[in-house]
Every structure is written in C-alpha cells, then in structure tokens.
Design a protein that fits this description.
mainly beta
Length: 66
C-alpha cells in the first residue's frame, strides 16, 4: 500500500459491541464491524474486513483476498 510505503502505520477499527477473545491476533488495517464475535485461537491477517453480526470460529486464520 502506498501509505505504508510512505511510513504510515495503518490502524484497526473494532466495533464497540464486538466481542474479541483476549488471545486473538489481529493484523494491521482491519475493520471489524459491530456485533462480531471472534472466538479463541483465531488469527486475523492484515487488511481484513468483517460483516456485521459475523462469528469468526475457533482455530481459524483469516486473510484478505487479493
């Protein structure tokens, strides 16, 4: 991404009504919308966007599609 190449750090947005397990690993530039449940042992890569009300299941690795 051009912004990263220029030295900017991309932040994440995690909705206030979202539940994220404490051990979850979340990459940069992620947008986790409201009412999402992220269960334990999940890894979310860079540039991932979830839909409202989604449930991200146990023992999964999520990456952005190209």
């Amino acid at each position: 991404m051009e912004a990263i190449d220029k030295g900017y750090k991309m932040i994440n947005y995690i909705g206030s009504s979202t539940i994220v397990a404490p051990e979850t690993q979340i990459g940069d530039n992620c947008f986790i919308i409201e009412k999402v449940v992220v269960q334990p042992f999940v890894s979310i890569g860079n540039n991932v966007m979830t839909g409202s009300g989604s449930q991200v299941s146990l023992h999964r690795d999520f990456k952005a599609s190209n």
